[in-house]
Write a structure and sequence with these properties.
The complex is a heterodimer. Chain A has no helices and eleven strands. By secondary structure, chain A is mostly beta strands. In chain B, strands 2, 4, 5, 9, 10 and 11 form a six-stranded mixed sheet that branches. Chain B has a five-stranded antiparallel sheet with strand order 1-3-8-7-6, with no helix packed on it. Chain B is globular and about 45 Å long. The chains are: A mainly beta, B mainly beta.
Chain lengths: 115, 110
């Protein structure tokens, strides 16, 4: 158990809908990362937050947005869903002190299926 | 901009064999990560390396910064080592964005 929690574990929805994925980092970690893993593209970095502020942005679509709240939990919002958004979405957390030079702890993931 | 290549893509082994998985990248980095993804989908961070060698149980990770290459070794492999092993490096120097290799799928048979 990494100490990172993600809800829900599974999500089935229809095209055009909007969903929210939630992540609670390990106690004390200030950085939260979001990743997407699809069958054809592998793992991809979406976005990183540090202590409530956006720190780095990857290949995140405009239909997707995220935020980190004062209690450090984070939410990833996916809207106008398309079939191609079906994927595993992981969040990871780290202390945030040493950037990429520190271990990231991954949550169990949310499996999203868009029908 | 960095690119990551892993080899082999697939690997089968008999229990007890010594396993090597390779990762090459194109741009200088400050750290490299090795991850393990279980058949159920969960991801575990195995190592974060910035130089030399690290060992954890039967797993050993090495990195050669000059040659832009890292290897993950598994000694005395076991069926429970069956998983996908993924290396990840920063997109470029001085960024927190990681890019990932396509992974090596390892199956260890008893």
């Amino acid at each position: 158990d990494s100490g990172v929690t993600q809800t829900p574990k599974h999500l089935i929805t229809a095209t055009g809908q909007r969903v929210t994925l939630r992540c609670s980092p390990r106690s004390g970690d200030l950085s939260v990362y979001w990743y997407q893993q699809s069958l054809d593209q592998g793992l991809q970095f979406l976005i990183q937050y540090y202590n409530g502020e956006e720190r780095a942005k990857g290949n995140i679509l405009e239909r997707f947005s995220a935020q980190q709240f004062p209690d450090l939990h984070s939410e990833l919002n996916l809207s106008s869903l398309e079939l191609g958004d079906s994927a595993l979405y992981f969040c990871a957390s780290s202390p945030g002190v040493a950037g990429v030079e520190e271990t990231q702890y991954f949550g169990p993931g949310t499996r999203l299926l868009v029908l | 901009k960095n690119e990551v290549e892993q080899s082999p893509q697939n690997l089968t082994a008999q229990e007890g064999e010594f396993i090597t998985i390779n990762c090459s990248y194109s741009v200088g980095i400050s750290a490299l990560h090795w991850l393990q993804q279980h058949p159920g989908g969960g991801i575990v961070s195995l190592f974060m390396l910035s130089s030399g060698k690290k060992k954890h149980g039967r797993l050993i990770a090495t990195i050669n910064i000059q040659e832009k290459h890292s290897s993950l070794h598994i000694t005395a492999s076991h069926p429970r080592d069956s998983a996908v092993y993924i290396c990840a490096v920063p997109l470029s120097y001085n960024t927190d964005k990681l890019i990932f290799g396509t992974g090596t799928r390892l199956q260890v048979f008893p």
